[in-house]
Amino acid sequence: MTASDALCKAIESFHSNLDALREFFDVAHPHLTKHEEENVKRLLPLAAIFQKVLQEPVASQIKDDGEGEPMPDGVAPHVSVERKKEGRMVSYSVECDPGFDWAAFKGTIDGVLRSRGGTKPDLLGRAALMLLASTAEWYAGQLFHALLEAQPERLNSSDMSLPFKELMKFDSIDDARHFVAEARIESILRGPVESWIDQLKKDAGLTASYIGPYRDDLVEAFVRRNVLVHNGGLVNAIYLNRVPSQSRSGVKHGDRLSVDKVYLENTINLTETVFVLLGSEVWKKLHPEDNARPALLARIAFRHLEHQRWKLAEHLSQFIANDRQATTEVERQVAQINVWQARKWLGLEAVAVANEVRATDASALAPVFRLARHALLDEHAECALLAKKLLRAGDVSLDDLQGWPLFREARKHPQFAKLIDDIRARTKKKVARGVNPRPPKLTVTLPVGFLSEAAESDQRAKQMPERKAESKPEKKRT
Questions:
Q1: Can you tell me the distance from the alpha carbon of 38 to that of 385, in angstroms, rounded to the nearest whole number?
Q2: Which of 131, 395, 400, 430 sits a CA distance of 20 to 30 A from 416?
Q3: Per-residue pLDDT for 88 more than 60?
Q4: pLDDT (mean) for 353-366
Q5: Residue scoring higher pLDDT (269 or 79)
Q6: CA neighbor of 380 nearest in space, from 409, 359, 400
Q7: What is the spatial distance between Cα 258 and Cα 123, in angstroms, rounded to a whole number?
Q8: pLDDT value at position 336?
Q9: 308 and 321 Cβ atoms separated by less than 8 Å
Q10: CA distance linking residue 378 with residue 139, whole number of Å
Q11: Percent of the chain scored above 90 by pLDDT?
């Protein structure tokens, strides 16, 4: 496998793994959160006691001394607490409506005692952060491997120092070289995440200016992971010393760190931004004209646009727009449009984006790009008129108008929405009449040289002499 193939596979796998992590967390987290909310409802009697003891409201829905308020979502409508003092002892008794599930209350108490380390949603967040760090470590190792495979001379003399006794264990010099490379990479990955980045920048000669805004938060995430694993999530001196102050605002020694949904989403996004761009830059250094790189990044960027991860899509699209040796003019125009729409949807640079779009020469653009220009400038009526023409010409499809994030605002405009509704209605009529408006098209991708190899194989088969079937003697019947 070439370094180009290895990097392409590593980037695609890294992105797919992070997407799977996002999806798993999004599916599991609501169920666990709902379970925790149900537990809170089951613990209302205990909350009522605490309210009575502390003489302050613990739950806004509870009133003591027999005055009850309806509980939300089917919880018992009345909870009352009676306080009795006998000598030096004080007892509290709780009374609930008959509908209250005391068995569930007891089971919840038992569950709380068993899981003192944190709630289930928090444990899920911790596990997800650990998996994210492990995935990033694997991916960084793949980048170092690709770099050393492409340029083995990077293993300098100090790296190659092996005792003769150890060297004799290998069957070949290549085996010894692979062992040394593995040892070097393992040694790098044992260090902190910032040392991985610095070493990769040094080995590949990267600038990696895009890392600047994310470096401190990336360091914090990996140190947080270590604190969760090795110190039960309690902030210690190592965390305070290693994490820059701007990335740990308000955190004090002894605080318990957690991983909620927002934190995890932001951390996955910044991790993917930094490491995919690092991998892409290594790839660009080794194979500057490889057009597989912008094609892969464009697919990943579009998926992020679909899921409204605007900043991630902006960074990847900007990389494509700057990757001039590997891209065509059309690819760079598409990337620039994606940069503009990502910045627009972020809501921070809408005016600047509009000014940049207007400054471009629209006369030289293809019709599809003029359509994108109308969408970016919120010229929805013009966008609808041009979209109608391009639909007739077959330059865009109904799926494009319905699915492209570029048209998310245009789809709200009456004229654009009517265009989509009309096309849907016509399509339904054609289907009802048994007419397929656009027959399905099968596209088969074959490796280069496949057809010529198949033709040569067929020719060789024709030139081979035909073999006569050997006649078998008939068996005599008895």
A1: 52
A2: 430
A3: yes
A4: 88
A5: 269
A6: 409
A7: 8
A8: 95
A9: no
A10: 40
A11: 51
Tell me the β-bridge partners of 90. 85
Q: Model confidence at 26, in pLDDT bands (50, 70, 90)?
A: confident
Which amino acid, residue 34? K
Q: pLDDT band at 471, cuts 50/70/90?
A: very low
Share the mean pLDDT of the chain.
79
Chain CA centroid to CA 282, Å: 21
- Reply yes or no on whether the pLDDT at 96 is more than 90: no
Q: For 294-308, what is each residue's pLDDT tens digit?
A: 999 999 999 999 999
**Per-residue pLDDT reduced to its tens digit, 199-258:** 999 989 998 888 999 999 999 999 999 999 999 899 999 999 999 999 998 999 999 999
The phi, psi pair for 94, rounded to 5°, reads -115, 135
Tokens representing 173 are 């010099």
The values of phi and psi at residue 472, to 5°, are -100, 140
- CA separation, residue 406 to residues 132, 134, 231, 377 (Å): 30, 35, 46, 11
- Buried (b) or exposed (e) across 73-97, using 16+ Cβ within 10 A? eebbebbbbeeeeeeeeeebebebe
pTM: 0.72
3 state SS for the chain: CCHHHHHHHHHHHHHHHHHHHHHHHHHHHHHHHHHHHHHHHHCHHHHHHHHHHHCCCCCCCCCCCCCCCCCCCCCCCCEEEEEEEECCEEEEEEEECCCCCHHHHHHHHHHHHHCCCCCHHHHHHHHHHHHHHHHHHHHHHHHHHHHHHHCHHHCCCCCCCCCHHHHCCCCCHHHHHHHHHHHHHHHHHCCCHHHHHHHHHHHHCCCCHHHHHHHHHHHHHHHHHHHHHHCCCECCHHHHHHCCHHHCCCCCCCCECCCCHHHHHHHHHHHHHHHHHHHHHHHHHHCCCCCHHHHHHHHHHHHHHHCCCHHHHHHHHHHHHHCCCCCCHHHHHHHHHHHHHHHHHHCCCHHHHHHHHHHCCHHHCCHHHHHHHHHHCCCHHHHHHHHHHHHHHCCCCHHHHHHCHHHCCHHHCHHHHHHHHHHHHHHHHHHHCCCCCCCCCCCCCCCCCHHHHHHHHHHHHHHCCCCCCCCCCCCCCC
Distance CA 306, CA 403 (A): 8
8 A C-beta contact, residue 148 and residue 159: no
Q: Which residue has the tokens 């309210």?
A: 51
CA 335 to CA 316: how far, in whole Å? 9
